[in-house]
Design goal:
globular; mainly alpha; 19 helices; Growth Hormone, Chain: A; single chain
Length: about 400
């Protein structure tokens, strides 16, 4: 489906704004995991409660995705992109002010999470189709670079935040969150001054109800849910797992936990941007999903901390193509679906991305009651986190099975 020519359209400026918006998503989603241990200590929260913030995040995004599926092709793309960034900035402000403006700080954390997650949901729905419809010679590379900006954002946010915590202490985390809110605020202004391409050709858009009547759509949604669960469960718990599960200091946990995971993701997606058109995506994704399961188990059960940290980085590489790969395969199968298809896929991905990290937190609490012979020399908290992280291997293994049947059921 060729992009439409639009008078006054500045493709490079549009792409820069979209890449920054993807950075905003990464920033909003990954700031909270860097604060898991800090929030636990400051407010006396359980693993389930901090994991519940992730569930709130992706459940909110899921609801926004579902709502947008029916209206996204009828509403201004500029409005949605600007509103998404604006809500992200506002939500980060509410989150940062939770200790000062709420009698129950957890309520403020949850409310702030809801608001910035609404913004992330809007960006998730609209940014990919904007890039898809923006004129350019290397569409696959442009889309891969867009998705690469998510792990790039994850790495930048992790490194900058970790160094800030090291220099100033974790007690000043609200100021760091407020500083990061300037990025979506400025991106709101950038989109307000741009002309964007239309999302579909008039009279050729496939309707949502027609998409939902096809088995291929449902297989794709299941694959997206499993991809989201595999990626986000590990990403959200990498830092806390390294700090509490492996016993390393916070700076090392942030840089070699979440940071290394993000580097692995960025490498995989950038490589696909350069070589993606010359490889068979499905076998590559199956190997990635299997690798994600194996590295997840290595993270959980390796007896040496550095082995678990290396496995964390490899896990980022293994999951790197799962989410964008399912999007690419499905959009090729439904070329006339417009932005509504991206909304449906985002809903599927967010369903898995919200549920699995929460289940890891539940498991981390419950598995602390493991018998002494299983725990060995580990503390109850360490064995709980290790067994909780091991749960993330399940959706990756299921995705291997689903992708093995992709050509039969999707085409």
């Amino acid at each position: 489906m060729p992009p439409l020519e639009v008078a006054g359209l500045r493709p490079r400026a549009v792409l820069r704004a979209c890449y920054t918006a993807m950075f905003v998503q990464a920033m909003a989603v990954n700031l909270t995991p860097l604060l898991f241990v800090t929030l636990q200590a400051q407010f006396g929260l359980s693993f389930e409660q901090v994991g519940r913030l992730v569930l709130i995040n992706f459940t909110t995004q899921l609801l926004v995705d579902i709502a947008c599926a029916a209206i996204v092709d009828r509403v201004s793309a500029k409005l949605l992109a600007a509103l998404g960034n604006g809500l992200a900035a506002l939500g980060l402000w509410v989150f940062a002010l939770a200790p000062f403006r709420f009698d129950e700080p957890y309520l403020g954390l949850a409310l702030g999470t809801v608001v910035f997650s609404m913004g992330c949901g809007l960006l998730e729905v609209i940014i990919s189709p904007i890039v898809e419809r923006t004129p350019g010679d290397r569409k696959a590379a442009g889309m891969a670079l867009l998705h690469a900006f998510y792990p790039i954002g994850k790495v930048v946010v992790t490194v900058v935040s970790a160094l800030a915590f090291f220099a100033f202490g974790t007690a000043h985390w609200p100021w760091l969150v407020l500083a990061w809110s300037l990025v979506p605020a400025s991106t709101t202004l950038a989109f307000a001054g741009l002309r964007l391409p239309p999302m579909f050709e008039v009279g050729r858009r496939a309707r949502v109800r027609d998409l939902l009547r096809q088995r291929a759509t449902w297989v794709a949604l299941v694959a997206m849910a499993l991809a989201g669960a595999s990626e986000v469960a590990l990403a959200q718990w990498a830092s806390a797992f390294a700090e509490r599960g492996l016993g390393v200091d916070k700076l090392t946990a942030d840089l070699l936990g979440l940071g290394a995971f993000g580097v692995g993701m960025a490498v995989g997606r950038l490589w696909f941007g350069w070589r993606g058109e010359s490889v068979d995506l499905i076998p590559l994704m199956r190997r990635g999903a299997l690798g994600a399961a194996l590295t997840c188990l290595a993270m959980a059960f390796a007896g040496v901390a550095w082995v678990s940290l290396v496995a964390t980085a490899l896990a980022g590489l293994c999951v790197s193509l799962l989410w964008p790969g399912v999007v690419s395969l499905t959009s090729a199968r439904f070329p006339l679906a417009g932005a509504s298809l991206f909304a449906l896929l985002a809903a599927g991905g967010d369903a898995g991305a919200g549920l699995m990290p929460w289940l890891v937190g539940v498991g981390a609490d419950q598995f602390q009651l493991a018998p002494a012979w299983l725990a060995g020399d580990l503390t109850p908290e360490q064995i709980g986190l290790r067994l909780g992280v091991a749960l993330a291997a399940v959706p990756a293994l299921l995705l291997v099975w689903v992708l093995g049947r992709w050509r039969t059921h999707v085409g």
